[in-house]
Amino acid sequence: MTTGPGRSGLIMEEPLLWEKGQPGRTAFSLPDQDVPERSKEIDANLLGEAPDFPDLSEIDVVRHYTRLSGWNFGIDTGMYPLGSCTMKYNPKINEKMAATPGIASSHPLLDDELSQGSLQILFELQSFLASLTGMDAVSLQPAAGAQGELAGMLAFAAYFRKNGEQRNKILIPDTAHGTNPSSAALCGFKPVQIQSGTDGIIDPQVVAELMDENTVGIMLTNPNTLGLFEESIREITAIVHEKGGLVYGDGANMNAVMGIVDFKRCGIDIMHLNLHKTFSTPHGGGGPGAGPICAVEKLRGFLPTPHVTRKDGAYYLEYNCPESIGRLHAFFGNFGVLVKAYSYILSMGAKNLKKASQLAVLNANYVRESLRNDLYLAYDKPCMHECVFSDKWQQEYQVSTLDMAKGLIDHGYHPPTIYFPLVVPGAIMIEPTETENKDDLDQFIAVFKDLIREAKEDGERLRQAPLRTKVRRLDETQAARKPCLTG
Ligand SMILES: *Cc1c(COP(=O)(O)O)cnc(C)c1O
């Protein structure tokens, strides 16, 4: 078996802190009390019920968290080819910049005059994102891609309200991320699914048949979640605009096209970017993130408030936007994430951002070509930043996508995205990103090929995988829905 980067060394058992605690243990000692003890009743009146915290010594606490940290897997540990999530390396210079005292300790309640540096960062980030996408106006307000989608849908609703139009349907391809229909539904729009063609992209004819004067427009992901470029995008957006509709662009896959595609020329009206994907700020485990939205001129006024503007050489927060959909959260969201993305963009420069996208596409195609004789390729054509395989050929040996994903864990790899997009049964979506070098890609490919050989010869071990981890196959739905956080 090819060796992966994984190993099974000392893996400590670790109970919950509540199971570890013993009454009377403490992590500090105080001098003996030299005043009379207060009655417990007074304490109870003052403090209410004491929280249910376990009693622990310092070493109990230190070992607990140190051991848990060793169970974590992150991009700093190894390859994390989670398709659609762009788990690229996060350069440490970004952390250093965000931790600069003047930035890390700037207070959101300070007046604009005392926050010029922070405001300048935000202002320049707005302009960088505008020029990277080709769009006219940027709001840094949304705290995630999904919130960007919601803001975009609210802006669409405000636009039609202003025009005195009532539209209630929205077209969404079957390959879209689940957040697309949810965001649209939250604004009262009824999602209408568009079936992608046999070549994995949208046929403009299908859009033409569905688009009418009751339809808000379309939400398009480009490149889409099959890792394919929507080649008819200009035709599709023209059809939607012709009927007075608007086009939302889901830019989560921007890593394939930084500095290459002009989204305004493609006909996009509002799009979001995921700074925690494309712009190398850390993510996973639910945040923090940032999902700025970029809009064309006619929708500028509807963007969330506040945004940063410049007047007479000074920067300030603009709140006075009568048509705006308003605030999305307190202050400026995850400011540190915005600083990290700004640092990434500045340290790369326009030329290298474009190169990063080209390398991301090259790496994905390298993986696609290397595994194409081992795994079924759902759409057999060159891909963008990710490639989608399936378990079609392994079903003969009763080995599924889930079994192979779990098998990878035993060899030190985070599994790729599986069973998404839904249009590919048993999908395995691999996004290596530009930050993996050829040696690491070759090692990953070799391990994957070994697993597939094993699936053929003796699938039983794979059906049991992972075998080298602390816990084996979990009930993931139960774990997500009913997490056990206390003893
Ligand atoms: C990640 C993702 C989203 C949602 O973005 P979040 O920042 O996770 O809210 C939307 N669409 C696609 C295609 C994505 O990959």
Description:
The protein has 487 residues and is an alpha/beta fold. The protein is built from 15 helices and 13 strands. It folds into two domains: 92-348, 3-Layer(aba) Sandwich (Aspartate Aminotransferase, domain 2); 354-481, Aspartate Aminotransferase, domain 1 (Alpha-Beta Complex), CATH 3.90.1150. It has helices at residues 17-20, 40-47, 58-71, 92-98, 101-104, 116-133, 145-162, 179-186, 204-210, 233-242, 335-371, 401-410, 438-457, 460-464, 476-481; strands spanning 137-139, 169-173, 190-194, 215-221, 246-250, 270-272, 293-295, 307-311, 314-318, 376-377, 387-390, 417-418, 427-430. The strands form three sheets. The protein has a seven-stranded mixed beta sheet with strand order 1-7-6-5-4-2-3, sandwiched between helices. Strands 10-11-13-12 form a four-stranded antiparallel beta sheet. Helix 6 packs parallel to helix 11 (335-371), helix 9 (204-210) packs parallel to helix 10 (233-242) and helix 11 packs across helix 13. The longest helix has 37 residues, at 335-371. It is globular and about 80 Å long. The chain binds pyridoxal-5'-phosphate. Pyridoxal-5'-phosphate is lined by residues 84, 144-146, 177, 179, 221, 225, 250, 252, 274, 289, 291.
